[in-house]
Write a structure and sequence with these properties.
The chain has a single domain, classed as Alpha/Beta hydrolase fold, catalytic domain (Rossmann fold, 3-Layer(aba) Sandwich). It has 14 helices and 10 strands. It is of the alpha/beta class. Helix 4 links the parallel strand 7 and strand 8.
């Protein structure tokens, strides 16, 4: 928690709290900057608003390079979804229902009521789908990165992987998360084990069941532009699931990150940042405001996002 806060505040983020009953949500706001100075000039119009949701057992700072790439032109709001990042909530983490309600309020109070680009990674993407189902008018563009929650998968296998008990379980999960685990993750296996056996993670996993998942018929109701970004070698939620989701969504593009596993933000951060910048060009926000566009464009799959030879890990 302390490391996450320090890393974000050193980058110029402002740490704030949203109080809602017994929940105290920590979140960070990053204003658009370039090389330490405000990029946008007076009269240039508002910065593009983004809400970014991290994955299970993680913290806001795990977005890393993505934050630096996006904040040049975007206003970023990045919440901590569990006690691992300092948020206080029953059970130690925001469940899907509580999270969707609270993050909707965050959009209304911190991002002017939308519409915003909502991006989620893994479990964060599952929550992003739930928010989009409940309040689609708040979402101009939806970005799902190696998304959890899609029903038509082998959930027995997935459940065994994510319910880590020991270092052997960490190694099995690493095999699904990474094609080549970054050195910092190899060195921090015990810290990872502590996170995945902590009450926030265990309680959240215990709260989830089949009724919480989403199916093709649910995705078909999401008419905003949706970008799916997927690691080609994702061993947790495989690429076939991404293709099925893309086919079910009325307006979608699928970006495949070559030679990357599930945790693309850690293994291939440059590729992820490049894909996010690419979708900003290919899925412009203006399309989300065209009432005649919704439901009229068939799903498409973009060419795979470029995989630079340098800095893939």
């Amino acid at each position: 928690m302390i490391a996450s806060a320090l890393l974000l505040m050193m980058s110029g983020a402002r740490r704030r709290r949203l109080q809602d009953g017994e929940v105290s949500l920590v979140y960070y706001v990053l204003e658009p900057r370039r090389w330490g100075r405000l990029r946008r000039q007076p009269g240039a119009g508002p910065a593009e608003p983004w809400l970014l949701l991290h994955g299970l057992g993680s913290v806001a700072a795990s977005w890393g390079r993505v934050l630096y790439a996006l904040r040049r032109e975007c206003r970023l709001v990045v919440p901590e979804l569990s006690a691992l990042g300092g948020t206080r909530a029953p059970g130690g983490s925001l469940g899907l229902e509580m999270g969707a309600r609270l993050l909707t309020r965050l959009i209304e109070e911190e991002l002017g009521g939308g519409p915003v680009t909502l991006a989620g990674l893994s479990m964060g993407a599952w929550m992003a789908v739930r928010i989009s189902q409940r309040r689609p008018e708040l979402i101009a563009r939806l970005v799902l990165i190696d998304a959890a929650g899609y029903r038509d998968q082998d959930w027995d296998r997935i459940g065994k992987l994510v319910r880590v008990q020991d270092l052997a379980g960490v190694d099995r999960l690493y095999g699904a998360m990474f094609r080549r685990a970054p050195w910092v993750m190899r060195r921090s296996r015990r810290t990872f084990l502590q996170a995945y056996t902590s009450p926030p993670v265990r309680n959240l996993l215990a709260s989830l069941g089949e009724p919480d998942t989403y199916r093709d018929r649910d995705l078909a109701l999401l008419t905003m532009p949706v970008a799916l970004i997927w690691g080609e070698c994702d061993g947790l939620f495989d690429l076939d699931a991404a293709r099925a989701m893309a086919a079910a969504l009325p307006r979608s593009r699928l970006y495949v990150l070559r030679d990357c596993g599930h945790a693309v933000h850690l293994e291939c951060p440059r590729d992820l940042a490049a894909a996010l910048q690419r979708l900003r060009r290919e899925l412009p926000l203006t399309a989300a405001h065209d009432p005649g566009a919704a439901g009229t464009t068939r799903p498409t799959a973009a060419d795979p996002a470029p995989h630079p030879s340098a800095g893939a890990g």
